[in-house]
UniProtKB/TrEMBL annotation:
Organism: Streptomyces viridiviolaceus
CDD domains, sorted: HDc
SUPFAM superfamilies with a match to the protein in the record: HD-domain/PDEase-like
Stretch forming the signal peptide: none
Name of this protein: HDIG domain-containing metalloprotein
HD domain ranges (all copies): 27-109
Amino acid sequence: MPSALDTPQGAAELAESLLPPLGNRWLHTQAVAARAREASTAVSEADRDLLVAAAWLHDIGYAPELRDTGFHPLDGARHLESLGAPARLVQLVAHHSGAVYEAEQRGLSAELAVYEREDSPVLDALIFADMTTGPAGQSFDFDTRIDEILVRYEPGSEVHNAISKARPYLRGAVERTRDRMAHQPM
């Protein structure tokens, strides 16, 4: 078991122990972590490892052995909490990519609200990494990624409804991250 879950190495080890059997989910996770490394210039130096660790762990709640509610941000956060992971890491996983919108669709808002959501460059950069990476690790622009999700999930489904509602919020996070990356000194 990794000893430092909020480090990129420790987070990668935990993700690798859970996600490879899920095929494309593992490819997506690896690419999101790489994208988070690229976007790390958009956050303070002190938060860069946390961002990359959260990227490695953002989808661990999809692992069958962790499935409880069927809502992967919540299931992943609960698992990390059970391992004694730092609160910020747990919160970032719980709230990645507009999870609050899907929690509402699933009737899990109260359960998700246990985990405080930070509105920060770190959460924005995590959203950026996830919302510009396709389901098999492809590099997508934001609109292509959102459209891909909306095609993959049936209209009327929790995910389809949540992503439709979350689109402006997610776009804002992606744009803020791009702006922060563009304004970093070389």
